[in-house]
Amino acid sequence: MYPRHARLVPVVATVGLLVSACTSAPSNTESKEPAVVSQYACGQLHIRVTADPDRRLLGIDYRDKRILLKPDASSSETLFVAPGDTTTRFRRQGEQAELTIRGETFPDCLPPGALERPFIAQGSDPIWQAHVSSAELVLSPPYEDQQSLRLPSELVTANRHGREFVAEASGTRSTLTVANQLCQDPVTGAQYPNQVRLTINGQSYQGCGGNPLRLIRGAEWVVEDLAAEGIIDRSRLTLRFMDDNRIAGQASCNRYTGRYQLTDEGGIDVSELAMTRMACAPALMAQEARFIEALEQASKVRIGPHGELLLFTSEAGLLSAFQSDHDTL
């Protein structure tokens, strides 16, 4: 058994193109430019949305697939549905969007630099917290036992790198600067999708923000190494973290499903695993058993320096996986 190096995509990379009756993404040979081109990140799923000149058709490119969607007749122009498949849909909601592919709903789709709302940021040394929603910043300042401050806020910077908000009232001027960069809490070790700097009356504090689920959801993670023993050539071990805290994938021979839950300190708990009952070669069955054992013993999840998913276990060793660029939905 040797470590396998498949053609994989790291977390920080922008993955290619869009979906619908799911064909492979075509080459760019058309001379006519689309009227609208938009980029979104739906967690770790990066999509490119195009509209034809009369805006009656949407194309969504993701991984190696394209989906074609038409406006839903029963709603406004914000909802597009795949012909013959109402479980595949795309809905615009302001600068954000919602994407569901064959019944699987992805995290909120955000254009470059955008933040989910409400956006929550916090620091642990010292302890502080900030909520941004609509035109208000709700702030729990460090070193103070007072009630939270509610300050009217204004978005003063918006670009592909992040956002900056300024809030001022009752003698308090606060600036919240958010960058789209992986952040790890220095006290708990938990990871978040955004680095944050909070400034209150000239004093600055560092912290993290955003929903940690955005770091692991939206990708199909393909295992490259299991307990420092690699994996069997041409075998496949995968993980998909889905909505409603569901987990599923390929376990070498059989497919599995289960539940997962993240904790506030970067921990993870996988439970209720169930599998199909196919029989394969003894070596594959042994690898499958080790993989399932690693999932059941998983206690901590991290994103590594190369965008890899790392699952730490109490006894079964370390599991590492990279994103696949092939769609298996």
Major sheet details: 10 strands, antiparallel
Radius of gyration: 22 Å
Shape: flat
Task: Look at the structure and give the mean pLDDT.
Answer: 88
Structure description:
It is a single chain. This protein has three domains: 8-110, no CATH class; 119-210; 215-324, Lipocalin. It has one helix and 29 strands. The chain has one helix at 282-297; strands spanning 8-9, 23-24, 36-42, 45-51, 58-62, 65-71, 79-82, 85-93, 96-101, 104-105, 109-110, 119-124, 127-133, 136-140, 149-159, 162-169, 172-179, 183-184, 191-192, 194-200, 203-209, 221-226, 238-241, 246-250, 255-262, 268-275, 298-303, 309-313, 318-324. The strands form four sheets. Strands 2, 3, 4, 5, 6, 7, 8, 9, 10 and 11 form a ten-stranded antiparallel sheet that branches. Strands 1, 22, 23, 24, 25, 26, 27, 28 and 29 form a nine-stranded antiparallel sheet that branches. A hairpin with a 2-residue loop joins strand 5 (58-62) and strand 6. The two termini are 28 Å apart.
Please describe the topology of this protein.
Layout: E1 8-9, E2 23-24, E3 36-42, E4 45-51, E5 58-62, E6 65-71, E7 79-82, E8 85-93, E9 96-101, E10 104-105, E11 109-110, E12 119-124, E13 127-133, E14 136-140, E15 149-159, E16 162-169, E17 172-179, E18 183-184, E19 191-192, E20 194-200, E21 203-209, E22 221-226, E23 238-241, E24 246-250, E25 255-262, E26 268-275, H1 282-297, E27 298-303, E28 309-313, E29 318-324
Antiparallel strand pairs: 1-29, 2-6, 3-4, 3-11, 4-5, 5-6, 6-7, 7-8, 8-9, 9-10, 12-13, 12-21, 13-14, 14-15, 15-16, 16-17, 17-20, 18-19, 20-21, 22-23, 22-29, 23-24, 24-25, 25-26, 27-28, 28-29
